[in-house]
Amino acid sequence: MICPDTDHTVTEALRKLSQSVHIASVGPDNTPFDVFIPPLKPEQLGDRAFCSEIGIRYPYLGGSMAKGISSVAMAEELGRAGMLGFFGAAGLSFAAVEEAVNRLSGADFPSGFNLIHSPQEPDLEAALSDLYIRRNVRLVEASAFLALTLPLVRYRTCGIHRSAGGAIIAPNRIIAKVSREELAEKFFSPPPEKLLRQLLDEGAITAEQAELAARIPMAQEVTAEADSGGHTDNRPAIALFPTIASLAVRMEQKFGYAVKLRVGLAGGIATPAAAAAAFAMGAAYIMTGSVNQACIESGTSDTVRRMLADTRQADVIMAPAADMFEMGVTVQVLKRGTMFPMRAAKLYDMYRSHDGLESIPAPEREKLEKTLFLAPLSDIWRDTRAFFLQRDPRQVERAERDPKHLMALVFRWYLGQAAHWAKEGATTRTMDYQVWCGPAMGAFNEWAAGSFLASPEQRRVATVARNLLFGAALLTRANILRYQNIQLPADFCIAPLEDIHIKEYLA
Ligand SMILES: Cc1cc2nc3c(=O)[nH]c(=O)nc-3n(C[C@H](O)[C@H](O)[C@H](O)COP(=O)(O)O)c2cc1C
Fold first, then answer.
1. Entry pTM
2. 314, burial (CB in 10 Å: exposed 0-12, middle 13-18, buried 19+)
3. What is the pLDDT of residues 69-110, one digit of tens each?
4. Which of 67, 219, 264, 500 could form a disulfide with 174 if both were Cys (CB 3.0 to 4.6 A apart)?
């Protein structure tokens, strides 16, 4: 039957999430029956034990966004709102990450830091792991790992001990982000024996700690990352999540852990419907990225925020990644309003078909200098060389031996700068902006159209998060009604609400 909710009384009752709803209804054979919808508050949507273990109220995590795009301000806003934000440490200097650690440590809410696998800069990965250990950063988001590394295992096992009651306590927690089951398997397994032995030999852990470490998973929580902004395998969430969730169950049984393995979902979540779907599949928590970049607290420019507000779902495309350019790795970026994806793809084609800058035909080289680099390539190499002499002199040595590597470093200059120009809002370089973004952005814009959240200035990360959680809970309640054969009117919609109204409904 269709519920005649013309005066929206049922809709209003559903919105009061902490109150149950009872409706006396009549079935098709005229038998009366009671429809019941239990209270469902946003904090009930995910895994409550997970939230209480990490000290947050809501199962909502803001994912790391490189170069401080997920900024200190963003982690603070999410933290104060009872959620958790990861600081985007990737692509920043050690000093910049340390500064963020200084600013966030001592806060009265939890936050986390990104530890990204850096095959090009293994020393930086190790230095960050040491920094997090030294400064008691208790939660990291590990991402882009293809295999477990020593710095990561060092972080996880540091300080491991038994409590007075005999439980194994590992003070450092890793939430691993993966898009493949083979990687989830590695994180759900105990640290590799070989790496534990290495730490033992170095004296970083004791024999007893190595023995304890062999009984815990590297990560108790894995975030399954579906098609998203930035690095992505473009997996569909509804295919990926059940596979990783089922792996968690098998791995828990296989290793007989004393703790529960949990799976969260990221990728494509920027509407109440997507959030509700994630929780319906059993996500312990949801993680967002693209939509947060569009919020005022993000470390990008207002120009990018405006571009993101105009983005539709098909306005994104894969383009070569700066960090793993030579390996042909790609990232998902915005294509509307910028020529970056096309230009970066052209550079990758050239990299594949030439042995070095010298073998590029003169007219093509001139075109590159005029349109992309806006300087002679020799100048770009001079600056790149100076940069690497500071940061990683081995790159310069290799480039001076191998012209193809020199070409890669010059081309990577463009890719790296393109992200920087976007973040800084460089007015002369808008056509070269590299803006990491997934289809979630377009979905959000479509949902927010016509509401206060359509305007980039109104997009606050916690307001967006509260709306997604509130909407997910409301939609879940509406579905319970639907499963009892009562449909809400077609115009039942979950429109964005101002914080004050959400607060009233949650009271
Ligand atoms: C601008 C941007 C930068 C990102 N940088 C990182 C990063 O440095 N490390 C990381 O683990 N994930 C990174 N991500 C992924 C997000 O943390 C998150 O997992 C993802 O954006 C979720 O999918 P969505 O974009 O569909 O919301 C980035 C995403 C965006 C949009």
1. 0.96
2. exposed
3. 999 999 999 999 999 999 999 999 999 999 999 999 989 999
4. 219
